[in-house]
Amino acid sequence: MTVANCPSCGAPVEFAIGSSAAVVCRYCNSVVARTDRDVESHGKVAALIDTGSPLTIGTPGKFKGNGFRISGRTQMRHQAGGVWDEWYAAFDDGRWGWLAEAQGRFYVTFRVAAEAPPYEQLQLNAVVPEVDDLFVSEIGEAAFISAEGELPWTPEPGGRYRYADLTGDAGRFATIDYSEQSPIVFKGNETTLAELGIAGEARRTKVAAAALNCPKCAGALTLRAPDQAERIWCPYCGAGLDVTSGKLQYFAMLKVKYRVEPVIPLGSTGTLDGDVYVIAGFMQRAVKFDIEYYWTEYLLYNAAKGYRWLVNSDDHWSFVTPLRPGDVMDPAVGRTFATNIAYQNQTYKLFQEATAKVTYVLGEFYWRVAIGESVDTVDYIAPPFGISKEMTTSGASEVSYSHGRYLTTKEVGDAFNVRDLTPPSTIGPMQPFTGSRLGTSWLFMVALLIVAAIVIGIRQPGRVVLDQSIDISAAPPAEGAPNNTRVIFSEAFDLSGKANIEVRGNASLDNSWLYVGGDLVDDLTGKYESFELPLEYFHGVDGGERWSEGKLSRRVVLGRPDKGKYALALSLQWQEGQTPPALHVSVREGVFRWPYFILAFLAISVLPVLALIRWFSWESQRWADSAHSPFGQWSSSEDDDDEE
Amino acid sequence: MLKKFYALFGVLVIAAYAYGGFTGAEMGRSKKGYAPPGGRGTQGGSRAFWYGGYRGGK
Fold first, then answer.
1. C-alpha to C-alpha distance for A202 and A222, rounded to whole angstroms
2. What is the DSSP string of A150-163?
3. pTM score > 0.90 for this model?
4. Which of A446, A484, A528, A614 should be substituted to probe chain B, the one whose Cβ sees the most B Cβ atoms within 10 Å?
5. A87, A301, A637, B23: which has the fewest Cβ within 10 Å?
6. Other CB atoms within 10 Å distance of the CB of residue A344
7. Euclidean distance between CA atoms A511 and A256, whole angstroms
8. Integer Cα distance of A599 and B24 in angstroms
9. pLDDT (tens digit, 9 = 90+) per residue, A238-287?
10. Rounded to whole angstroms, how far apart are CA atoms B53 and B58?
11. For residues B24 and A517, is the Cβ–Cβ distance under 8 A?
């Protein structure tokens, strides 16, 4: 341990760790840095802001088997106004670890010898090959505001530091520090207090809920998450109050032309996914296409889970959870957007991209939200889920992702005990299709039908039992019958009585006809079944064009007859005055019936087709407001007409 | 619900198709009958019914 005197106030300052660079004097808040020979003051830092962190100087812990003790911290202010702590852990093996804490998440990193791209070349969402292919999730500038304890570097009070945060899958994390001439890379992981061996006691509150009153209207304000709130918009008078300095500070009045009432009151509690959330904040946002589209968002808070959102758009509700950027497979680089992204092996399709603007705000928030704040949003859907990508348009360049799950009006009403929620009248982007598509069932049925048809086809013998040319002119006419008629019996044939039969007749006709009235006759019993084969063929030239009509050949299928010996009784009549044509008849036992197969196919396809039409209609409505609809380009026909 | 109904309906349709295919049944009605018993006792058996003037066909 090295003890020196503070150059500013003369109080003793202790360098307990051999590799520390500076100590903050606990008496005068001077940053006392070591030099080769002595110590020097780098100016005084402001008083620490109580962030309610569960960590303190001297907290011991263990990370991946290595013990450490927290020796100091710096406080940095984000461009968006929030404050975060960076704690410095002196490890037993001589290394320094950086423990960053922001919005309840902890990140442990270690300085590594790695190259890094210049700050100016950084692009949001771009992969950085030099740092394990992590991608850039935030590019910004932090202001150093305060510090305490023993530090591995010498901060300059009032200094501003450029940085980039990189993320990857499985909680991989890195920061590139651009405060020095050569960028410094810190690599590590998102972690938890439990993983760090630090007892996970609840965060301390920095503002007592009971003592709060709006400094503008004296209205009673009940803070839902007093340890994390950065800004409150008074629900009574619309005063904007900052919380980050440890007390409520008025800074502006809400400037709106109208009041938006949340349909679920601020402070309401509800249970979603088994966790009880309280509605801490409420805001309305809008995007502008041809007109402005508005929706509302409720900021939910649960001490263990953190913040969530309940989004209400056109009476469609969704429960939204923030995602780690590294867990989303998004190929887009910079401010561009991809047509598909993936999360947990599910593909999400691009639905809409726009710039969303805050148009109304009430209650408390964990960032310094204000009317007019805008972000570029890209919405992706995989009903009943959706992912929203948001990129800041001012201040630090930051990309964030959140995962939404569709909730029915009943689910929301039951969760928050609200009974008068308006049901939606449209199809929402994330609303799941409520019908059945029957596609898989239909495929199964078709397969079953084909198998049945194959078995039936195999069983059909297709046996020719009669194949006979009939010389009509050789037969005498029946007594008293016209001369152009005959009754002729075919040769006898045997039928097994196991299958249907096909009777086929064809005649050599030329501008003539032959009517065959037939009976399949059981020679033994006299039982008969009638059929007819009207044959005709006419042709000619009319107006220079050839024409023809009629059929020289016809077939008829009769149902399975009983087993027995049969013959065809053929009652023939042909065009009077002409010679009888040559007739050929055949009988085949066991023929495959395609019409019945087609009929069965159509029968099992009707419902799936109707279901498909309903699904198509549903999806068309879902994508109606999207510029990226797979059902056709979204456009305004009126605009097109105007252009013409 | 629709899936269950469709499964039942589909199975019934295919069962009906298979039954018709295996038994050689035909849809629709054709004219059926017996040659008069008297005719069957004459020379030529039931064929006399047709030679006697009956005209076949529907």
1. 19
2. EESS---TT-EEEE
3. no
4. A528
5. A637
6. 10
7. 91
8. 16
9. 899 887 655 788 888 888 888 899 999 999 999 999 999 999 999 999 99
10. 15
11. no
